[in-house]
# Entry
Amino acid sequence: MINEDFAFRLGWAAATWSLSTNGTEEVLLGRDTRSSGPVLLTAVAAGIHAAGLRPFYLGIVPTPAVARAVQTRDAALGVVLTASHNPARDNGIKFFTRRGRKLTDADEAAIERYLSAAPAPRAFPAPEESPAAQAYREWAVRLVPAGAFAGWRMVVDCAHGATVETTPAVLRHLGAEVITLGVTPDGANINAGVGSEHPETLRATVLASGARLGLAHDGDGDRLVLSDETGSMLDGDDLLAVLALDALDRDALPGRTLVVTEQSNLGLDAAVSRHGGRVLRTATGDRQVIASMRAEGATLGGETSGHIVCGDVSPTGDGLVAALRVLEVMCRRGKPLSHLRRQWQRFPQRTAALRIRERPPLASLPNLSAAIAFWESRLAGRGRVLVRYSGTEPLLRLLVEGPTDAEVAAGLIQLATAAQAEGIGADD
# Structure
């Protein structure tokens, strides 16, 4: 459970670990708009101070702004109090190491080993303030030519979250007329019926206002989904297709490689291949995407959820950067978003999520293993089957992709039936 006591101990453990790996003293902290943010941030900062490092509060800023500040200031650590796209009642603590990188599994294990040695929580002065929103805005507007979006009407949904003072301001500075949604945070309304998880109002506003497009972030600003001018939504796979195909056509994609997760639609592979590129798949999670990008020397990757990593300018997923890159493609091609999104075709896909009480190895479930083997053989070279436990919820996730919707539907039914025969989801 994340409370003040745990936040203090985790801050102390992370700072102590950091002291053992580098000599810098500055730790940068930011948060989203949740009401629990200030007290938890103060507790984390106190733990960091107790370990001997200097915490600085960057203000309410998007998660990628913290990562960038760590990178540019060569700080020891970055800390973000956020639960991303989750409801306001939740909160969490994200860390970035030097150069704005996310923790590895080994880093997390090392920090956990220090937790038991943490001292009893005690109060310290509030961290020094070093606001970062303005520097982030000034950097972002330099990514595209001045006035690039003059005369463009856009709808921007900030999810009552951390992008309220950044994305609308940047787009207006670049000439756009911006209609805003989700820009009145009160500590309890972050992601509540707004943002990337709830794009219905965004879509309706785009249509009602005649906007060229709409964009929506999650609560901490590292995700992006778009609405084209017809109200059709574009998820992360759509955005990756727009960016990758444009870069391949310009010979501007290093290694001609796009990095995605196992969740991305196989249609991406087909489209990228037609343009002379390749798709590299990783396990689910933007951290895995970023690690593979670094290993391959790739500069573009992301997830279906809307985490888009433009590694040539940002060390992590950044919803604003992704938006600016897509808008640049629209300018360069002189085409509306509805045209660009039709450059690729999704393979038929069906998914299901079954509730679980335990997580037995999938190989120990004979009915499910047999169903997986059957459909992997049947779809070999034409589709795929993905069965995995959720990393964050008590769910078994099923995915089937293939050449026809009928075949995909049959596969999903057989997998779900086999899982239920093992006692998974049968009573839910």
The domain at 4-131 is CATH 3.40.120.10 (Alpha-D-Glucose-1,6-Bisphosphate; Chain A, domain 3). The longest strand covers residues 54-60.
